[in-house]
Amino acid sequence: MLGHKVNYTDEELVKLIVDTKDSYYFSILYDRYAKFVYNKCYSFVNSEAEAQDLTHDIFIKIYVSLNTFKGKSKLSTWIYSVVHHFCINYINKKKSQKIVFYEVSDDVNADTENLDLIDDIDDEDLFEISYNNLQEILQKLSDNDRIILLMKYQDDLTIKEISELLGLKESAIKMRLLRAKKRVMELHKQ
């Protein structure tokens, strides 16, 4: 392996993996993103064993579909999307029921005054909840609420990025965040 360059960009790695199918290059990509993928999986399933299994399966999916990455976004964004969709599908199969995000019509018909209420629940109120209490509350939330909160506050995604990942309008995302934050505060007061 002496002839291999050490510091490849994500784009260079993708091209090398797709062109050569050399496992050495994929191992670099794996090392770069394994912790990120595992942590995302763990946030969905809250089980180390399941998160490890999901991480393994996701990297197989990434390897198989890497040739579909077109470079229109950062590789990390593309991987995030793969992880998110894979985990959602896993949860759906595991529960034998489909996770249905709030009906878009509910959000579209919401008056704009309600959209401004998102500021009524200050993020600082959420941050004041102790870590252990917040972990308990997150487990009590619906999958929909937990996922959108994790995307916003753990993954630090913008409303626009969440909108693009979920394929929903920004107003719908704002309304979902408002509902999820309200639910967290209700559970915290109990």
Short description:
The chain has eleven helices and no strands.
Report what the structure shows.
By secondary structure, this protein is mostly helical. It folds into two domains: 10-95, RNA polymerase sigma factor, region 2, helix turn helix motif (Rna Polymerase Sigma Factor, Chain: A); 104-189, Winged helix-like DNA-binding domain superfamily/Winged helix DNA-binding domain (Arc Repressor Mutant, subunit A, Orthogonal Bundle), CATH 1.10.10.10. It is 73% helix and 0% strand. The longest helix has 23 residues, at 23-45. The chain is elongated and about 55 Å long. Residues 97-119 have low confidence and may be disordered.
What secondary-structure arrangement, pairings included, does this model have?
Layout: H1 10-20, H2 23-45, H3 48-65, H4 75-95, H5 104-108, H6 112-116, H7 123-127, H8 131-140, H9 143-154, H10 159-166, H11 170-189
CATH architecture descriptor text of the largest domain: Orthogonal Bundle
Coarse morphology = elongated
Distance between the termini: 59 Å
Mean pLDDT: 78
Structural class: mainly alpha
Unreliable spans: 97-119
Question: Oligomeric state of the chains?
Answer: single chain
Instruction: Give, in order, the helices and strands.
Output: HHHHHHHHHHH
- How would a textbook summarize the main sheet? none
Radius of gyration: 19 Å
Q: Count the E strands.
A: 0
